[in-house]
Amino acid sequence: MTRKSNAAPQATEAARGAGKAGVARERVIKKYPNRRLYDTQSSAYITLAEVRQLVMNREHFVVRDAKSGEDLTRSILLQIILEEEAGGAPMFTEAMLANIIRFYGHAMQGFMGTYLEKNIQAFMDIQAKLAEQSSSVSPEMWTQFMRMQSPLMQGMMGAYLEQSKTMFLQMQEQMTRQTEQMLGAFGIKR
To answer: Which of 50, 98, 159, 170 could covalently link to 46 via disulfide, CB atoms 3.0 to 4.6 Å apart?
Structure first.
């Protein structure tokens, strides 16, 4: 059995990218059976911490199995979350993780993923607005702002809660429609 050199991944990726002149290539990271990650853009092996940094830098990438080409991006992202959770100040409580697990295989599984994703995006939008507005604020002004619980903060949190409520109600309505359609297919009318 011969061992592959580092040149093999480079040559393959270069050949694929050559036909796409002018088109931004997707950053591909290959995962080898020895659990090593190879960044085809930098032509070097990278660590999970470096993949985390790509996420933090908002760089788009995909992780593929080097042999089969299977997309492993989600499993690598979950691995990063696991390391972050084990590394000190976890974001998720045991109760929250147990509740998430309970949604797998449940009729609400698809809705819950969308609901969480939209809520996190709404929260990030609020965070970005706050950061933009507070870039010129001194620490003293920030302290005073927090003490007053400004109407701006209350308004943004109110909008976030209202958006969350609206998404939940839409999810509920969609489930009701799907249930009625399913029961109608069986000849059961509500």
So the answer is: 50
pTM, rounded to two decimals: 0.60
The residues pairing with 28 across neighbouring beta strands, listed in sequence order, are 62
Q: Are 83 and 50 a contacting pair, CB within 8 Å?
A: no
66 burial via Cβ count (<10 Å: 0-12, 13-18, 19+): buried
Query: Distance between CA 5 and CA 17 in Å, rounded?
Result: 20
Q: For residues 6 and 43, is the Cβ–Cβ distance under 8 A?
A: yes
Tokens matching residue 92: 């998720």
DSSP 8-state assignment for residue 111: H
CB-facing half-sphere around the CA of 32: CA atoms within 13 A: 16
pLDDT digits (tens, 9 = 90+) for 109-120: 888 888 888 888
Class of residue 163 by CB neighbours under 10 A (exposed 0-12, middle 13-18, buried 19+): middle
Residues in a beta bridge with 29: 39, 63
Q: Which of 1, 57, 59, 69 is nearest to 30 (CA)?
A: 69
Model pLDDT, residue 153 = 58
Q: What is the per-residue pLDDT across 62-86, written as a single tens digit (0 to 9) for each? A: 999 999 999 999 999 999 999 999 9
pLDDT tens for 25-48 read 789 999 999 889 999 999 999 999
